[in-house]
Amino acid sequence: MTTALITGSTAGIGAAFARRLAAGGHDLVLVARDVKRLREQATELHDRHGIEAEVLAADLAEDSGIETVAARLGDRRNPVDLLINNAGFGNKGRYLDVSMADELKMLKVHCEAVLRLTSAAAEAMRERGRGGVVNVASVAAFVPRGTYGASKAWVVQFTQGAARDLAGSGVRLMALCPGFVRTEFHERAGMGTDNIPGWMWLDADKVAATALEDLARGRSLSVPDPRYKVLMGAAKLVPRGVLGGISSRTGRKYGPQ
Ligand SMILES: NC(=O)c1ccc[n+]([C@@H]2O[C@H](COP(=O)([O-])OP(=O)(O)OC[C@H]3O[C@@H](n4cnc5c(N)ncnc54)[C@H](OP(=O)(O)O)[C@@H]3O)[C@@H](O)[C@H]2O)c1
Fold it and tell me: What is an example of a GO molecular function annotated in this UniProt entry (predicted)?
């Protein structure tokens, strides 16, 4: 029996990971801010799959929240075998439309929390000679796209670099880069999604399943859908200036009108 800790477990991609891992018989540590929702999720997963689901309420935009989760990951008596750093959010609007407080909050959740939690987990995993970390980035990591894209580019670079440094230790690290996924993400950010074509939407359960397969294959980067693999390949051929223009115009479409 192994244990997985998932941040942002109560909705969207995190909830899909929780369902998938619970169905596979893994015990879970569920992390988010909304305690009521966490408890309901833990009860449901326990009742349906017979696994143990621990609840850890933490705000990863706060030092105290990061420390709480890092302490759990470092608990040698109750080891965590798989960490999914998934919690994240979007800010509506382009550069200078977003307040500095919100920009900094994004860097705290997407970068600082990911660094500190990955490190806490990887240290304990390296001692045991096994373990895995999935850091949820985005295809936005590969296009010029303000603080969101920049924070996800950091996740990709950091994760692939750390994966290389820990090669041979038994600890696997992988950055996951989905395209648009139907979750609460866009609604929470107040972003309209009418302009996003139907074919661009991915299913969270399929994203989680592919990610776990790619981790098992030893990949350090997962782009979980052939459509986005093609798009990412094509994006490499487009000059960065043109790509930046397309990205900025798309941002305007589903940012403030
Ligand atoms: N949806 C997409 O199109 C898409 C595409 C590419 C990448 N991603 C990335 O995928 C990840 C998950 O996104 P999602 O679409 O599944 O979002 P979602 O449906 O909005 O779920 C976000 C989850 O994160 C938790 N969370 C948010 N802020 C938190 C904080 N400060 N501390 C702790 N937990 C927090 C939320 O619970 P509480 O509110 O209770 O804390 C919730 O469980 C994010 O990193 C996102 O950037 C999403």
Answer: oxidoreductase activity
Query: What backbone phi and psi angles, to 5 degrees, belong to 171?
Result: -100, 125
Contact call for residues 28 and 6 (beta carbons, < 8 A): yes
pLDDT digits (tens, 9 = 90+) for 192-207: 999 999 999 999 999 9
* 109 CA → ligand 1 middle, Å: 10
Q: At what angle do helices 12-23 and 35-49 cross, to 10 degrees?
A: 30
Nearest to 213 by CA among 168, 170, 174, 167: 174
| CA separation for the pair 219, 247 (Å, rounded) | 27
Cα of 157 vs centre of ligand 1, distance in Å, is 20
Q: Is 155 exposed, middle or buried (0-12, 13-18, 19+ CB in 10 A)?
A: buried
CATH number for 3-254: choose from 3.90.45.10, 3.40.50.720, 3.30.70.360, 3.30.240.20: 3.40.50.720
Cβ of 227 closer than 6 Å to ligand 1, yes or no, is: no
The DSSP call for residue 59 is -
User: Tokens 């397309």 correspond to what residue?
Assistant: 246
**pLDDT tens track for 169-183:** 999 999 999 999 999
For residue 5, list its beta bridge partners: 29, 83
Mutation test residue for ligand 1: of 40, 84, 85, 86, the one with most atoms within 8 Å of CB = 86
